[in-house]
Amino acid sequence: MASADFPATFAALRDLMLTAAPDQLVVTDQPGDLVLHTRTVDPRTGKPVWFGAVTLRKGYVAYHLCGFRGHRAHHSDLIARGNPR
What we know:
Number of strands: 4
Strand order of the largest sheet: 1-2-3-4
Order of helices and strands: HEEEEH
Radius of gyration: 14 Å
Distance between the termini: 28 Å
Number of domains: 1
Structural class: alpha+beta
Largest sheet: 4 strands, antiparallel
Helix content: 25-40%
Low-confidence stretches: none
């Protein structure tokens, strides 16, 4: 993929994350950087749990998601919405 395609790829992945996770907190939404947190507060830190991010860099576009192992509330919600994973 040519770097000229990166902004369009970032835009598509940004829209995908926002559409798939409408109930998450948008922490950062700037050109080239989207960060979401859950509404669940980590009892150890007292801060919302990191959910995922989409970033645009010079040589790549990254899409990161938090693993849900051990987060029963989120796992149950995904199952209820028909998502097998």
